[in-house]
Amino acid sequence: MSKSSFKRTKSRLSPAELRRELADADIALMEAVVAGCALVAYSDGWVSPEETLRMRRLILRFEPAKALGIAEVLTLFEDITLRFAQDHDAGERDAFELVSRLIERPRECDLLIDTCCGIADADGGLDAEERQAILKLCALLRVDPRPHGL
């Protein structure tokens, strides 16, 4: 299904607002955000080397990642993507485990969904697999997907 089949996702916050919100992120939030973005990236079952390179470039340019510390975010992203590459199901379980640590933190849950929507939208929209991954995250975290255009 083409990306044009779905409307663009909507982060409720601008990139600068996301960066400010993530400026005081603790390790649990940083891990959850990176895990959520990896879930979106691997939503179709695999990520090509080109997609991995593109995700690294997106992280380098994505304002909220700067607030979390680019080097730390890239190291964590590489660790999580390695888990997916070795065993997709185990990588997915590990990523959902990291994300689930935020369940009792509604503000951070919304922030995670905003960030994942921003990453998914970075290439012009989202495909069916990305949308489904974000909806799973919303369900896990009890976040209403409607404000995000899902």
Let me know the average pLDDT.
78
Enumerate how many helices there are, as a single number.
8
What proportion of the residues is helical, as a percent range?
A: 55-70%
| Structural class assignment | mainly alpha
Alpha carbon gap, first and last residue: 16 Å
| Biggest sheet record | none
Whole-angstrom Rg: 14 Å
Low-confidence stretches: 1-10
The succession of helices and strands, N to C, reads: HHHHHHHH
Query: Proportion of β residues?
Result: under 5%
The geometry reads as globular
Beta-strand segment tally: 0
Overview in brief:
The chain has 150 residues and is an all-alpha fold. It has helices at residues 15-22, 27-41, 49-61, 63-68, 70-86, 88-100, 106-121, 128-141.
Structure description:
The two termini are 16 Å apart. The N terminus is likely disordered. The chain contains eight helices and no strands. With 150 residues, the protein is an all-alpha fold. Helix content is 68%, strand content 0%. The chain is globular.
Outline the fold blueprint.
Blueprint: H1 15-22, H2 27-41, H3 49-61, H4 63-68, H5 70-86, H6 88-100, H7 106-121, H8 128-141
